[in-house]
Amino acid sequence: MSVRCKLGDIMKQRRLSNKDVVALTGVSRNTITSLAANATKRIDYDTLEGLCRGLGVTPGDLIEYVPDDNTKTP
Q1: Distances from the Cα of 70 to the Cαs of 1, 5, 28, in angstroms?
Q2: Distance CA 24, CA 40 (A)
Q3: Does 20 map to a domain?
Q4: At 4, is the secondary structure helix, strand, or coil?
Q5: Is residue 68 part of a domain?
Q6: How far apart are the C-alpha atoms of 27 and 34, rounded to whole Å?
Q7: Domain total of the chain
Q8: Which parts of the sequence belong to the HTH cro/C1-type domain (predicted)?
Q9: Residue 34 structural domain
Q10: In a domain, 70, yes or no
Q11: Residue 31 contacts by C-beta under 8 Å, 6 or more apart in sequence?
Q12: Alpha-carbon distance 55 to 2, whole Å?
């Protein structure tokens, strides 16, 4: 099971740089870089709120659940 942040995908689709997203959201550059690269294990509610507000998206637009291929359903 994996939870994936789709910020990098959104940034590519909209042709936004890290600097653009920082300006739109107020989220730090290091956090944006980490989230866009899907290299983080957690996200704070304040960060999620800033991204949603600044980018005009919902949490469901930013976060995706990807089940493992070999996960058995109960």
Answers
A1: 9, 21, 37
A2: 21
A3: yes
A4: strand
A5: no
A6: 11
A7: 1
A8: 10-62
A9: 3-63
A10: no
A11: 40, 47
A12: 24
Angle between helix axes 7-14 and 29-36 (nearest 10 degrees) is 100
Beta bridge partners of 4: 64
**CATH number assigned to the domain comprising residue 8:** 1.10.260.40
pLDDT in tens, 8-64: 999 999 999 999 999 999 999 999 999 999 998 899 999 999 999 999 999 999 999
Nearest to residue 1, comparing CAs of 70, 60, 74? 70
Q: Judge whether 71 lies within some domain.
A: no
Dihedral (CA of 27, 29, 35, 40) sign: negative
Amino acid 1: pLDDT: 55
* pTM value > 0.70: yes
Q: Which two tokens stand for residue 48?
A: 């999620």
